[in-house]
Amino acid sequence: MNFKVKNDTFLRALLRQPTEYTPLWMMRQAGRYLPEYRATRRTAGSFLGLCKNPDFATEVTLQPLDRFPLDAAILFSDILTVPDAMGLGLYFAEGEGPKFERPIVTEADVKALHVPDIGTDLKYVTDAVSQIRKALDGRVPLIGFSGSPWTLACYMVEGGGSDDYAKVKTMMYKNPKMMHSILEVTAQTVTAYLNAQIEAGAQAVMIFDSWGGALSHSAFHEFSLAYTQRIVEGLIKEKDGVRIPSIVFTKGGGLWIESIANSGCDAVGLDWTMDIGVARQKVGNKVALQGNLDPTVLFATPDVIRNEVEKVLSSYGYGSGHVFNLGHGISQHTDPENAAALVQAVHELSKKYH
Q1: Domain range annotation of the chain
Q2: Is 42 helix (H, G, I), strand (E, B) or coil?
Q3: Mean pLDDT across the chain, nearest whole number?
Q4: Residue/partner pairs of 54-57 with CB below 8 Å, 24 or more apart
Q5: Residues 6+ apart with CB under 8 A from 121
Q6: How far is 7 from 24, CA to CA, in rounded Å?
Q7: What is the dihedral angle through the alpha carbons of 290, 292, 295, 299, rounded to the nearest 10 degrees?
Q8: Is residue 1 scored above 60 in pLDDT?
Q9: Active centre residues (catalytic)
Q10: Residue 8 confidence class, pLDDT cut points 50, 70, 90
Q11: Environment class of residue 352 by beta-carbon count within 10 Å: exposed (0-12), middle (13-18) or buried (19+)?
Q12: Dist. CA 104–CA 60, nearest whole Å
């Protein structure tokens, strides 16, 4: 396997080492906004068909890189592969998003939860990681990822997506012991899962705490961050003599940036509600920052995109430690030409800050 990365700007930025420009990748960069992705998905027959087949997963992971000069690839998968492997029975209802056949309702459901055998139950993911890494041939680094225990637990208890998180928050307040049991098993699973991705070839890993922002201040620290921190502590930090950086992204987590920066991760992802310059002042040199353009900016004209990119770059200011990204996933309704304009703007405009 090729250990040398031709373009390691992304990895250097995560470790706050000097770079010539600000690297970027986009959350959900392999997705429905690309016609080639839609074509592969039709061939695969379903979203899960795409996720569970390493050949298709490799194909769609590489599609955005063949189209745009991005600085990192991210494994094509879904955060819900973990609860699926834990026995909850993931399926996708037409037009309704992800659902679970066996959501967690009772104490017995919690007792039945177990850490899956990653090498068996999630082999399709680690196989995809190895295959993608080989196919990349050192072009850019490969990011592995997982959902955070809290975010996964939201789906596991709600049985799917939710607007108000009423079931999971009720359980959290009424039966915190039960909630902690779920989070404990899930944290162990996520740690093993991310380490398996690193062993298979992931060169950086990211934890998506998509629903952490739904919690109160104290609940966030007790039920979300404490478990994310435990995972970060349990991660493989170096492989083949190379550092494996970790990124933690909590949507709506700007209020807790200092706490997240203290979790031991190398970089904190920001959504678009937090000014990146303010974030930098708060965390100093402790971590790199990733973000944080509002994805809807990509519905505007290339001139507006350029202008908004400049705002983010100038707010972050001079020096390394910034990985440019969107503040959340790219919308399926984005014109790929506008994504191209974003990549070009970041690469051109960021040089003067380095």
Answers
A1: 9-353
A2: helix
A3: 96
A4: 54/124, 54/127, 54/128, 54/131, 55/131, 57/124, 57/128, 57/131, 57/132
A5: 85
A6: 12
A7: -120
A8: no
A9: 28, 32, 41, 78, 155
A10: very high
A11: exposed
A12: 32
Residue 131 has pLDDT above 90, yes or no: yes
Q: Between these two residues, 245 and 97, which has the higher pLDDT value?
A: 245
* Alpha carbon distances (Å) from 28 to 73, 101, 269, 339: 10, 26, 14, 12
Q: Is pLDDT of 291 > 90?
A: yes
Of 290, 296, 291, residue with least CA distance to 331:
296
Is the pTM higher than 0.70? The answer reads yes
What is the rounded CA–CA span in Å between residue 149 and residue 178?
Answer: 14
Please give the pLDDT value at position 3. 63
- 192 is written with which tokens? 């093993």
Phi, psi of 24 (to 5 degrees): -150, 155
Number of residues assigned to the chain: 354
The two beta strands, 238-239 and 242-243, are antiparallel
Q: What residue type is 335 in one-letter code? A: D
Handedness of CA 178, 180, 182, 184 (dihedral sign): negative
What distance in Å separates the CA atoms of residue 176 and residue 34, rounded to the nearest whole number? 43
Residues 100, 233, 236, CA angle at the centre, nearest 5°? Answer: 90
CA-to-CA distance for 76 and 98, rounded, in angstroms? 16
Cα–Cα dist 158/88, whole Å: 12
Least confident stretch, 61-70, 94-103, 198-207, 342-351: 94-103
Report yes or no: 249 and 207 within 8 Å, Cβ to Cβ: yes
Peptide bond before residue 292 is cis, with ω within 30 degrees of 0: yes
Report, at the CATH architecture level, how domain 9-353 is classified. Alpha-Beta Barrel (3.20)
Q: Which stretches of 172-244 are assigned E, i.e. beta strand?
A: 204-209, 238-239, 242-243
Q: How many CB atoms lie within 10 A of CB 78?
A: 18
Q: What is the pLDDT of residue 94?
A: 75
Chain centre to alpha carbon of residue 311: 24
pLDDT of residue 96: 77
Place of tokens 């080639």: 36
83-99 per-position pLDDT tens digit: 999 999 999 877 778 99
Q: What would the pLDDT profile of 268-283 be if each residue is shown by its tens digit?
A: 999 999 999 999 999 9
pLDDT of residue 95: 75
